[in-house]
Amino acid sequence: MGDTTGPAGLRLPEGVLAMAVRDGDWARWVESLPGSAQGLLEEWQLGLDGPAQHGYCSLVLPVRTPAGRPAMLKVGYPDDESEHEHLALRHWAGHGTVQLLRADPRRRALLLERLHPEQLTEIDDIEACEVVAGLYRRLHVPAPPQLRRLSDRLGRWVDRLSALPRRAPLPHRLVEQALSIAGDLRSDAATDGVLVHGDLHYDNVLAADREPWLVIDPKPLSGDPHFEPAPMLWNRWDEVVAGGDVRGAVRRRFHTLVDGAELDEDRARDWVVLREVLNAAAELDEPTPDPDRITTGITIAKAVQD
């Protein structure tokens, strides 16, 4: 790979450089980052205000605006999930979420309100679930028409599960159940129409000045609010296992989210089962599948319905 510094010496964090090994498209994106980030800093008249940071698929730079306001410049990898992030943030207008100050969707560039580094990972998981349940109620508003529809993704997921061989290391009963759920949801009008975050979990909620907690990093869809809880169950999994009562811990999180957000329990349960079986199936596509990840998905799918 070529030079990893920009014209003014912007140096990429090691975590961003490591993204280049994912495939050729990622490598080209990483190589282009110093120049594109430096261009944005100059065009938007932003001053660097701290060391570069990163997410799983983005470079994040602490900056100051021309007026001296602290902000964060996020430059994301151009995948489908990030394409409409700016639309969702504009639609929410800072109500429960980080404020969007400026965007260049073509370059996947977002100038965002600066929040604090503290995440929901730093408080008790059930208290965190209560916070997220309250955020659900604010985020789940009518979706902008440009967003991708959750029902369209269901079609791909049905194809993926249908292609699983019967000998796959997943309980066949669960796979059949997930296929049935997906078929029903695919034809249900309520599967689309509500703006959903798509990946709302403990790491994607940060402390703030305007409010105690604000949401970041949406992967927005026109979807169903009941789609949301699953990531809150599979994240912070080490804590679930360490507690000794895995079933009870999963169910406490699930019911805290469902009750706090006034979701329909049966519909939320169906989405959790489907998403967890899909997670386990996706792991089988990895060059070296992680059996623990497969077991986690199966365990959660069973726990919410036992």
From TrEMBL:
<dbReference type="GO" id="GO:0019748">
    <property type="term" value="P:secondary metabolic process"/>
</dbReference>
<keyword id="KW-0808">Transferase</keyword>
<dbReference type="InterPro" id="IPR011009">
    <property type="entry name" value="Kinase-like_dom_sf"/>
</dbReference>
<protein>
    <submittedName>
        <fullName>Weak similarity to aminoglycoside phosphotransferase</fullName>
    </submittedName>
</protein>
<dbReference type="Pfam" id="PF04655">
    <property type="entry name" value="APH_6_hur"/>
</dbReference>
<dbReference type="InterPro" id="IPR006748">
    <property type="entry name" value="NH2Glyco/OHUrea_AB-resist_kin"/>
</dbReference>
<dbReference type="GO" id="GO:0016773">
    <property type="term" value="F:phosphotransferase activity, alcohol group as acceptor"/>
</dbReference>
